[in-house]
Design a protein that fits this description.
The structure holds 3 protein chains of 3 kinds.
Chain A: H1 2-14, H2 25-31, H3 35-67, H4 73-95, H5 97-103, H6 114-125, H7 131-158, H8 171-191
Chain B: H1 2-48, H2 58-68, E1 69-76, E2 83-90, E3 98-108, E4 113-120, E5 127-134, H3 148-156, E6 171-173, E7 189-191, H4 197-225
Parallel strand pairs in B: 6-7
Antiparallel strand pairs in B: 1-2, 2-3, 3-4, 4-5
Helix pairs in contact in B: 1-2
Chain C: H1 7-16, H2 29-35, H3 39-62, H4 72-94, H5 96-102, H6 106-110, H7 113-123, H8 128-158, E1 160-161, E2 164-165, H9 169-172, H10 177-180, H11 182-207
Antiparallel strand pairs in C: 1-2
Helix pairs in contact in C: 1-8, 3-4, 3-7, 3-8, 4-5, 4-7, 7-8, 8-11
Classes of the chains: A mainly alpha, B alpha+beta, C mainly alpha.
Chain lengths: 193, 226, 208
């Protein structure tokens, strides 16, 4: 049990997929405008990363390796992810139409959120990852992404009233804030050995 | 009825593109394998300085590797039981003058697996070179592990004799700095890459692991021979 | 009727500037962060993106009346991934030297949201020819921004352009390490977004 917790904490914090590896930036920058939508999208990402990591691990171990078709890995992984996103889209459309509309094009675009494909590919590189480890790793990475987007949305709600040059509003200022957060994380990475 | 059509459509599309990719993959496996072998051969020739890779043809490089590098010996790590290939590079095809020994290293970098060879001198206690064969680190940052400035300390010679207990074989240091004599880092430090701390740390980790394994296996060989 | 008045021409031009995928729609940021510290890598990435965007937009548009809504994402992603991998295998077999530099980007091209974004927003509703031009336009708009950023980052970070040292490099150049690292890309992207948005806003304000 202990090592699962360690995997979770590492994936969510020290190896945060968004802030340490800069994956999954597009929807992060576009959706973090409002806290409520961010949380909605964040949970969708947690759901998708957790289950695609587990499912892709099963497919990799029990189908692709025995058949020797690892070269189809990228295609299989991304199609599995797309199928899951489609499922999430249908669920959200039915239960929360307002969230569905505020996410707009970015809901289908979770498919190509590189963080999710990244999780599926990274878990294969980790030594000794079995089914539960992969599931927890996917869950931890998703939670890390959720925390990062909520953090960003909080900052953006705070500065909404501030005087920002019109051209810099929206994406511009968000990029600068992300740049500063990224600098902090670069410094962290040098500290942990 | 509609649902069946949907599923059928998905299957047809997947089969079509899957077949396309598989066909191309199968038809190119041989070429890809050849390319991979050539890249490794060229890397070995460069690592041991057996010829100028810019002027040699593919065939000549393959012949040099075949005649001047002896790959027959493998060492065994007594601790894990794992096999470590020991390459012997000779200056001539008759294999009379030894240039250097070599062994492979591999490990997980910041993104994917990194692998390559380390060359060591006849005493097996000092490096004489390092060559990365495959890596996919961030271009311009981590990918610079292939560049001369990173490889230079290994070519100049780093100490890989057994360190004091609790100390590492190799250390990553600030670019351009020199460790003082008497410190554990002296003669064992290679330059980190500015801006690519994670790749540098990963290299430090995997090189230490591979060198430690080689050390155990090599010491086992000398004691075994005596 | 000039080229700019056709549906495809309009889509192409709009994507290059006033609806630029990078600074107007904030798409394709991950790859923009990863590749823009060297101009050569940026050019390779942009070439791959324009090619894939054009081909996948064309294919999605041709199939648009046959793709059931429930599985459209899977189909789109499958098409994109297949094209990228086909190109990857081809380059790996024929040009192993080029593959060494472009290899790491394969996953990044598949997950570049510009391609899927254009397929979803435009190609799935429009005829083939305009869709292909739309894809090319999005690719070119992306390339425009990335090349500007890459020129600045490589010049300040390495003192070179396309690997060739700039004139009198020894006198004026001091390495800006931050430009080589991802935070530098964020700040450059912000500057480009600021500049681009200001011009687009001004134009829109003047037109009103």
């Amino acid at each position: 049990m202990m090592h699962l917790l360690v995997i979770f904490l590492a994936a969510a914090f020290t190896e945060n997929i968004l802030l340490a590896r800069f994956l999954g930036m597009c929807s992060f920058l576009a959706i973090s405008r409002q806290l409520k939508t961010s949380i909605g999208l964040g949970f969708a990402v947690v759901f998708v990363t957790t289950f695609t990591a587990a499912l892709n691990w099963l497919l990799h171990t029990y189908v692709m390796v025995p058949l020797g078709i690892e070269f189809l890995e990228l295609i299989v992984f991304i199609v599995v992810i797309a199928a899951f996103v489609q499922l999430v889209e249908m669920i959200i459309e039915r239960f929360s139409p307002s969230l569905y509309f505020s996410l707009g094009i970015f809901l289908p675009l979770i498919t190509v959120n590189c963080a999710i494909l990244g999780v599926s590919l990274f878990m294969l590189n980790k030594e000794g990852f079995r089914f539960w480890e992969s599931l927890v790793f996917g869950f931890g990475s998703g939670v890390g992404w959720l925390l990062a987007i909520v953090l960003m949305a909080g900052i953006r709600e705070q500065i909404k009233e501030d005087k920002i040059p019109p051209g810099l509003r929206g994406s511009g200022i968000t990029l600068i804030i992300t740049g500063i957060i990224a600098l902090a994380f670069v410094a962290f990475s040098g500290m942990i050995k | 009825m509609k649902r069946v059509k949907t599923v059928l459509f998905m299957i047809v599309i997947a089969a079509l593109y899957g077949a396309g990719v598989t066909g191309l993959y199968l038809s190119s496996t041989q070429t890809v394998e050849q390319n991979k072998r050539f890249i490794e051969q060229r890397a070995l020739v460069e690592l041991f300085g057996l010829g100028d890779i810019k002027t040699l043809s593919k065939k000549e490089i393959a012949r040099i590797v075949e005649t001047q590098i002896d790959r027959s010996e493998t060492l065994t790590d007594p601790q894990t039981g794992r096999q470590v290939p020991l390459l012997k590079a000779f200056a001539d095809p008759t294999q009379s003058t030894l240039v250097a020994y070599g062994f492979p290293f591999t490990g997980i970098g910041f993104w994917t697996t990194i692998s390559g060879y380390i060359a060591v001198d006849a005493t097996l206690q000092k490096t004489v070179g390092l060559k990365v064969i495959s890596q996919a680190e961030t271009p311009g940052l981590g990918a610079r592990i292939e560049e001369p400035f990173f490889v230079k300390p290994f070519a100049d010679g780093l100490d890989i004799s057994k360190p004091e207990p609790g100390k590492s074989y190799l250390y990553m240091g600030t670019a351009g700095s020199q460790a003082d004599p008497g410190t554990p880092q002296y003669g064992r430090t290679f330059d980190a890459i500015t801006g690519a701390t994670q790749t540098s740390l990963a290299m430090e980790r995997m090189l230490n692991a591979s060198v430690a394994e080689f050390r155990r296996a090599a010491d086992n060989r000398t004691t075994g021979a005596q | 009727m000039s080229f700019k008045d056709t549906a495809g021409g309009r889509a192409l031009l709009k994507n290059i500037w006033s609806d630029n995928p990078v600074f107007r729609q904030v798409l394709g940021i991950c790859s923009a962060l990863a590749v823009t510290n060297l101009l050569k890598n940026t050019l390779l990435m942009c070439g791959g993106l324009v090619f894939t965007a054009a081909l996948s937009s064309l294919t999605v548009s041709l199939l648009r009346n046959y793709i059931p809504k429930q599985v459209r994402m899977m189909v789109q992603v499958l098409i994109i991934a297949a094209y990228v991998i086909i190109v990857d295998i081809f380059i790996r077999a024929q040009f192993p030297e080029i593959h060494k530099t472009i290899g790491p980007y394969v996953g990044l091209i598949i997950t570049n949201c510009i391609i899927m974004g254009r397929a979803e927003a435009f190609a799935s509703k429009n005829p083939a020819w305009p869709s292909m031009l739309d894809g090319i336009g999005a690719g070119l708009g992306y390339s425009l921004v990335l090349i500007v950023i890459a020129v600045v980052r490589e010049a300040l970070g390495f003192g070179t352009l396309l690997g060739i040292p700039l004139p009198a490099r020894d006198i004026w150049w001091y390495q800006w390490t931050i430009m080589v690292m991802p935070p530098g890309a964020f700040f450059m992207l912000a500057l480009v977004a600021w500049f681009g948005n200001s011009i687009v806003l001004k134009k829109e304000g003047g037109a009103k």
